[in-house]
Design goal:
The structure is a single chain. With 103 residues, this protein is α+β, with helices and mostly antiparallel strands. The chain folds into two domains: 49 residues, YefM-like fold (3-Layer(aba) Sandwich); 38 residues, no CATH class. It contains five helices and three strands; from the N terminus they run βααββααα. The chain has a three-stranded mixed beta sheet with strand order 1-2-3.
Length: 103
């Protein structure tokens, strides 16, 4: 819910405004000369808004993934990537060799 009030009313009733914002989840738009200047909102709403700003959009993430893929293909000069099962097999062999050397 959203409520509008003048700056004078907000100043006079600030305690009540804070209570309504916290308890009822209201957002209060404070105006001066009929021009909205600030919004009073709860800390939980503010934190949600900050978290939403910091999250990367799926379009931005997709663009980064495509860019990384393009750079990898350019570095490999058209050579296909090694299949994951081969990499895992090689890593296990290396680990087994390292463990054998410990004994």
């Amino acid at each position: 819910m959203e409520r509008r009030m003048t700056a004078t009313d907000a100043r006079i009733r600030f305690g009540e405004v804070m209570r309504r914002v916290v308890e009822q989840g209201e957002r209060v738009i404070v105006e001066r000369v009929n021009k909205p200047l600030v919004v009073i909102l709860s800390m939980s709403t503010y934190k949600q808004m900050k978290a939403a700003q910091q999250r990367e959009s799926w379009q931005d993430a997709l663009a980064r993934v495509i860019e990384v893929g393009t750079r990898i293909r350019a570095r490999r000069e058209g050579q296909p990537l090694t299949p994951p099962d081969e990499i895992i097999h090689q890593m296990r062999e290396e680990r087994d060799a390292q463990l054998a050397n410990l004994c």
